[in-house]
Amino acid sequence: MPGRGKLIAVIGDEDTCTGFLLGGIGELNKNRKPNFLVVEKDTSITEIEETFKSFLARNDIGIILINQFIAEMIRHAIDAHMESIPAVLEIPSKEHPYDASKDSILRRAKGMFCAEDFR
């Protein structure tokens, strides 16, 4: 992708994805794969995890936004991601407020600056 920046990917509920898509983040790669997943009641955890891993493997994605309540479903996969790019950011949804104590990426970042978090 010469001359182009990296994409933002979204894994979220319908309201979250709709908001970001209206903001212009929606893209299809050369294999016609979108950079978002709308998680509904019948979306399996396996599908969420496979989509997350596919976003990690794509070289055109720089940031993955995921609703925190969905991140809780695949916490082991998020905790296993150690690379800085793509960055994984947990965001709130309309029905589920953000809880910083559940955000493993934030805890890891705090640990870089405060040794007491690891004791």
Written account of the structure:
InterPro entries: ATPase_V1-cplx_f_g_su (IPR008218), ATPase_V1-cplx_fsu_euk (IPR005772), ATPase_V1_fsu_sf (IPR036906). Keywords: Hydrogen ion transport, Ion transport, Transport. This is V-type proton ATPase subunit F. This protein has 119 residues and is α/β, with parallel strands linked by helices. Helices cover 35% and strands 18% of the residues. The protein has five helices and four strands. It has helices at residues 14-22, 45-57, 68-71, 75-80, 104-113; strands at 7-12, 36-38, 61-67, 87-91. Strands 2-1-3-4 form a four-stranded parallel beta sheet, sandwiched between helices. α1 links the parallel β1 (7-12) and β2 (36-38). It is globular, with a radius of gyration of 15 Å. The mean pLDDT is 86.
How many strand units? 4
Shape: globular
Total DSSP helices: 5
The major beta sheet can be summarized as: 4 strands, parallel
H and E order: EHEHEHHEH
Q: Which properties best describe this structure?
A:
single chain; 119 residues; alpha/beta; 5 helices; 18% strand
Please render the helix and strand layout as text:
Layout: E1 7-12, H1 14-22, E2 36-38, H2 45-57, E3 61-67, H3 68-71, H4 75-80, E4 87-91, H5 104-113
Parallel strand pairs: 1-2, 1-3, 3-4
Structure at a glance:
The chain has helices at residues 14-22, 45-57, 68-71, 75-80, 104-113, and strands spanning 7-12, 36-38, 61-67, 87-91.
